[in-house]
Structures are given as structure tokens and as C-alpha cells.
Amino acid sequence: MTLPQATLGSWSPPVFLSLAVVAVSLVYLRGWRHLHLASPQVMAPWRAVSFILGLFSIWVAIASPLAALDEQLLTIHMLQHLLLMTIAPALVLLGAPVMPLMHGLPRRFVRSILGPLFRSTPMQRLGRLFSQPAFCWIAAAAALVGWHIPAAFTLALRSESWHVLEHASFLCAGFLFWWPVVQPWPSVPVWSRWSLLLYLFLATLPCDILSGFLVFSDRVVYPVYFSALHRFGMSVLEDQQRAGALMWTCITIAYLVPAAILTTQLLGPVRTHRNEVPDRHQDSAGSQPITQL
Fold first, then answer.
1. Rounded to two decimals, what is the model's pTM?
2. Which of 254, 179, 185, 178 is nearest to 43 (CA)?
3. CA distance 170 to 152
4. N or C: which end of the chain has fewer CB within 10 A?
5. Would you say the C-alpha torsion 103, 105, 106, 111 has a positive or negative sign?
6. What is the pLDDT of residues 137-155, one digit of tens each?
């Protein structure tokens, strides 16, 4: 039996995470259906599809057979990072998740717990901090660069607790990074939309430097992968080069697409109105109607 077959044979899906993904999906779909009936143009079906695909991407990165191979191939590990930090957060935020989740939860829970929590001073301060594009950019860059330092990378591979922290860091940093770009409800623009083009461009720089180093380096950056030498039909250095090329390509496309969409919107005709969704939890959660992006 080959190493990949043996690794996949020992894989078993984490029950808690799988159930959590299903539960969140059902709550979201329940709230989305209510909002879609009230305002089909704002809560269009593509938003629900995007949210579910985002959750599925998280499950694929952490709980699928793909996760069983991350200690054997750097390319697989890099794909995990891309799913958690780049793909999944963007898809989830495009689903405008806050309002559907609020409508999907029991009304009493929203009124008695979530409403006071969101109106509390500490949460308001955190919200203002986390909505600052400069903070979001720094957090994403720090997570990307920090966890790819060889010592930190090796620690995460050898310790399950640090591995979980690494995944959580990438996911949280991804949500922070995409929040100013997607601007889902209740996001309020802090910078002009034109400045977000610079935001996206600057975000490619640490990715380009890291991926370029992995592609063109003549030495193995992460020696921990020497244990998988020749077991996948490639050397450790070849695996490293493929991982760097994967990161370079995916990040370029992932940032170029929203930049092109944003440019098209900015150069197009100005919209004179926005569609709004009635908010049955507005009084309890202190929120305003969700608006279409």
C-alpha cells in the first residue's frame, strides 16, 4: 500500500466540525428563505450558494481527505491555506451572512443575547477596529508571513494544538481581509472604493515575495517534508516549487477578479438607489436594513 493510500485509509471525518457546518448551513438557509421572500433582488439565490460553498471550502480544508495529506505534501498544505484564507472567507461574506443567520436563529435568542452583545461598548469598539482596512491588511499579512516562517511552520505540523491555531488564524485573517472589499451588511465603508484597488495590489506583495522565494529557491525551506521524499513521484524541492506556483497563481487570480469588478463598478453609471430588506430583528439587534452590494 502506498503512503497516500495508507494516509487516506486512516482518515475519518471529524464529527463535530461536520455537524457544525450542517447546522450553520441550515440556520442560514432558514433565514435566507425568509429574506428572499421579502426581497428577492437583494437576497438572491447566488448569495445562498456562495455561503454554502464557503462553508464547504472550510470543511474541505480541515475535515476532508485533503487534510489527511497536508503533512505529506507542501502543495496540499498550501492549498489548505488558500482555501481558509482566500476562498472560503470571500464566499461566506458574499453570502451576506449576518442578517440571514439572525433571521434563522430563534427570535428570543437574538433579542435577549445577540442584541445586547452587539450593542455593548467593547463589541462596538472591536467592530470599529476590525472594520479599518489598514488593520485588516496588516492582520492578513502578519498571519501569512508569520506562519510561513520555517520554525512556526514546523511547530504547526508537529503539534495538533498549534496546527488548529494556525488554521484558525488563517480563517480569521481571511475574514478580516475580505471584509472591506466585500463590505457585507453591516459594513460601513471607511476608505473610498478607489483606495481598495491599492489595498488589493499591496496585498499581493507579501504573497508574491513568499511564493517567488518558494519557486526559485534552490534549497528546501521546510525540511520536515523530507520524510515524504520520492513517495509521491516528486522530490521535496519539486513539491515546494509547485506549492509556491500554486500560491502565486491563485492569489493573483483571487485579487485580480475583485479588482476588475470594482474598477468596472467605479467607472460605470452611478446607482441612484439601493434595495433594502425588511429587518424583523431590527429592534432587538439594533441593526439597520441590509443593502445590496
1. 0.84
2. 185
3. 13
4. N
5. negative
6. 999 999 999 999 999 999 9
